[in-house]
Amino acid sequence: MEKKDPYASLRIKEFNIFLLVRFALVFGWSMQFIIVEWQVYSITKNPLSLGIIGLMEVIPAVSMALFAGHIVDQKEKRNMLAFCIATFSLISLGLFFLTLPSFIDGWSKNSVLYSIYVLVFFGGLLRSFFGPTIFSLIALIVPKKLYPNAATWSSSTWQMASVLGPAFAGFSISWIGVHWSLCIVFSLILSSFFLTFLIKRKPILNPKIGEPVMDSLKEGIRFVYKTKAILGALTLDMISVLFGGAIALLPIYAQDILKVGPEGFGALRAAPSVGAFITMLITAYIPISRNAGMKLLTAIFGFGLCIIVFGLSSVFWVSVVALFFSGVTDGVSMVIRQTILQLKTPDHMRGRVASVNSMFVGSSNELGAFESGLTAKLMGTVTAVVFGGTMTLITVLTTGILNPTLRNLDLTKDIEEHEKGE
User: Fold this and answer.
1) What is the mean pLDDT of residues 107-120?
2) Domains of the chain with CATH codes
């Protein structure tokens, strides 16, 4: 058997540029989210306000997701990505001005808070376009036989940026303050914008340009519903992330429970991404396609256990270790899910399928943040986190028993078929 090259997709110049764009974008985005969380909790000292951040982002992201997928399938992908990044830079610039000392001194706390929520809302609107665009562009840069390898490296880049972004945000808040930290975010987004134009424009593969919106949306939803491997994986991941959204409560743990300040907050926030990043690097060498369904169920069960340990811990290093292993298990889940999507989605429907994915999985992060904030307000922070982890365990056990199709899923044959392709 021919030895697989773990760096195959990295030998494509445009894919490397794409990874640089994604790294700068995600690094800046994750930095910004952490800074916003810190600033909002510093203003309100109310755990529910952290949940509202998630709610403000998820409402437009879910509302626009399907429509965004339709637009992405109709448009040229490189320019679409550049437009999204340019618009995001305006949101970052707005947050930068909102944290100017003159704004803070001249406005009431509520005025600053509500303005932040408005910009987060527009960021959620924009995010509904990012996922489908990036997912579609990868498939136009690399050949089909390299989809699984490219998906692994793309996800690894996302995780690396997610590791460094939150950690750097925690330190930068301490070193230079919230305001100038947001200036760094704006610079990163601007860099990713200019890098995008080093990627050539790509052909539009959708044969139904100008198709009525409702017909297009129905076709995308029908495809996901009929493809049980995609539907099962997305549903399971959505529910587990929804109830395992303890990450949203990290400012409370850092400031009030563990008392570790912004540096410790950055370490806590980065720990899951470190674990996920290491997992993804390993999967570039050791594929996890065989018995993928059972591995997915086991990984999410392990994720739930880690969340419970984190919730109960009052020792900083135990909390960091628990979050690290939650990232390890989440990394396995992400690689399997992305591989399923890349292998089983036809080119002309990538935008719509990715938009459904963003509704199921991406938006569940923000809904999970709202659920965690709300339950923390009602039950107390520790009880809310343990409740979320317990619900994740129940969800995995129920899914494993009731969904034999997902339980028996194996991707080996799909990968072999793609490797025989172009």
Assistant:
1) 83
2) 12-196+210-419 (1.20.1250.20)
